[in-house]
Amino acid sequence: MVDLKGKDILHGAQFTREEIEHIMKVAEEFRGRLEKERSLDLMKGYVMGTLFFEPSTRTRLSFETAMHRLGGEVVGFASAAGTSVAKGESLADTIRTVDQYVDLIVIRHPQIGSAKIAADAAESPVINGGDGAGQHPTQALLDLFTIRSEKGRVDGLTIVLCGDLKYGRTVHAGVELYKHYNCRLIFVSPEALRMPSEITDRLREQGVEVVETTDLEAALAEADVLYMTRIQKERFDDPAEYERLKGSYILTREMVERIRPDVTILHPLPRVDEIATDVDSLPNAAYFRQVRNGVYVRMALIALVMGVV
Ligand code: NCD
Fold it and tell me: Do both 126 and 173 map to the same domain?
């Protein structure tokens, strides 16, 4: 029996396969219902707080859309500039305050571990919308949902993760889900942006097949799914290092057509230059469908932690 009522959503590693499957099933149900109705009234009277201390387009707007489509209300902010944080208020005090107003908190913050600090300070469930270079579990769940819906399965697929694997929180969370599905993982990055060894070592200890390479074309030849990521400019201490590494990998339409025409292409977005825009019209370029899926998966997460489904 899966019961996520009252739970925080902080880390990809917190889920069992059964929980992941349940979230997928509920998200699919919401997708079906939204094909018939514009919105539902499941969450009438509930208020969700979205506290975004870092820039966001998709994560914040899809959480807010999800809550509105569930019939609930939203309060929040999209930058700390207009809040008492600018006066020196601590994160814990801000969270304790918002906790007096809302039933559920979604937070994005530049510091690794901030979502856990928020969860410890709040009585309401807290959902991590990205904690620095740490984790982004709701993105990972919507990525998995997209793979399932594009490929019809996740089990046994070869998934190539390419780009900034050091600072990319979506891939840090994603691998914690893929490991439940006997996937083969190929990590493609510049040497300086490799997946942290704590993560790779732990995956290997858990029996996951992990290959690391700098060669995107060789990896693409074996990929069922190619997950491109942006070099995370805002995480670099040294701007010269970012300048050196930006543009490391650029997926072109020619590469896809020549090497692996039927690969499913994902990207959490925003894209800078990692995927040439002429890839977008390929039928297997799934990144804008992935965006839409974010609403269904976040509806599922909101409804599950609030215990209304
Ligand atoms: C990602 C993020 O914020 O970590 N974006 C997102 O949530 N869709 C990826 C990124 O910023 O590169």
Answer: no
Considering the domain architecture, whether residues 196 and 95 belong to the same structural domain is answered as: no
Q: Does any ligand 1 atom lie closer than 6 A to the CB of residue 58? A: yes
SS3 298: helix
In testing the pocket of ligand 1, which one of 108, 139, 246 has its CB within 8 Å of the most ligand atoms?
Answer: 139
Centroid of ligand 1 to alpha carbon of 17 (angstroms): 24
- Describe the chain by its helix, strand, coil percentages, rounded to 5: 45, 15, 40
- What average pLDDT score do residues 242-251 get? 97
Which residue CA neighbors atom 6 of ligand 1 most closely? 268
Are both 144 and 130 inside the same structural domain? no
* Domain coverage including residue 92: 12-135+294-305
Instruction: State residue 155's pLDDT score.
Output: 98
Instruction: Indicate whether 148 and 186 sit together in one domain.
Output: yes
> 43-68 pLDDT, tens per residue?
999 999 999 999 999 999 999 999 99
**What string of DSSP letters covers 131-153?**
ETTS--HHHHHHHHHHHHHHHS-
Q: Please give the pLDDT value at position 299.
A: 98
Q: Is 109 in the pocket of ligand 1 (CB under 6 A)?
A: no
Q: What is the mean pLDDT of the chain?
A: 97
Closest atom of ligand 1 relative to the 59 alpha carbon: 7
140 token code pair:
């990972």
Q: Which of 296, 228, 234 is nearest to 268 (CA)?
A: 228
C-beta of 59 in contact with ligand 1 (< 6 A): yes
pTM over 0.90: yes
130 lines ligand 1 (CB under 6 A): yes
Tell me how far the alpha carbon of residue 98 lies from the centroid of ligand 1, in angstroms. Answer: 24
Token couple for 13: 């590693």
pLDDT band at 110 (very low <50, low <70, confident <90, very high): very high
Kindly state if the Cβ of 179 falls inside 6 Å of ligand 1: no
Specify whether 170 is located in the same domain as 227: yes
Instruction: Tell whether 210 and 86 lie within a shared domain.
Output: no
